[in-house]
Design a protein that fits this description.
Layout lengths: L16 H13 L7 H9 L17 E2 L5 E2 L2 H11 L11 E5 L5 H8 L3 E6 L2 H14 L5 E4 L14 E4 L8 H5 L4 E10 L4 E9 L2 E10 L21
Parallel strand pairs: 3-4, 3-6, 4-5, 6-7
Antiparallel strand pairs: 1-2, 7-8, 8-9
Helix pairs in contact: 1-2, 1-3
Amino acid sequence: MRPSRWWRRATHPSLSTAEARDEMVRHQIEARGLTDPELLRAFRTVPREQFVESRDPYGDQALPIEEGQTISQPYVVAFMTDVARPQRPGGWRGARALEVGTGSGYQAAILAELGAELTSVERHLELNRRAGEALKRAGYAAVQLVVGDGTHGYPPNAPYDVVIVTAGGPSVPTPLLEQLNPEGGRLLMPVGGREHQWLTLVERRGDDFASRPLEPVVFVPLLGDHGVESPGGGAPER
């Protein structure tokens, strides 16, 4: 999702971090129609500045991080979290979740703050290390971090009530679909080419999978055996 679609407001440098988070929530998230109280509380609580090196960590834009990756703008993280919310008693609280692409660790922190039992897989060792340090500093050390090819999911903790993929690929990897909870598991992933994808929601009921596109987005490519290309640089899997 491109920030140019929305009114943009830079965080004022004189604000405290708590005030900056409140401004972010009111002007970037609530103003765009997301009103779930628990979601807004989480975004007012998680210290985004712990996860990104920027003079304006609460600004309305994506920011670069190591290994050529990015941290999405706050609204995109909020939108994805809101859409992926488990359709089960208690919502996120106690839900088993898988994140593919830990990145900075900010999305993981939001899900942990909401009460998810989260496993997050990252292919870059250095990103995994940095995200782990940031999560510990912010008080979310219970998140299980795994280094590996996230397109294979993480079978030891399956099935998952929710799978969130933070990179785009030509199709949803079959292993991730197989690891969804058959009783209403939900998967959210950008699906499409390198330059343009649709944020797509997949819901599982038994052996049936219902898919619907939600919003046009541009995410970094999902690399791996079931992603854009294999780790060895081979052709995309179809």
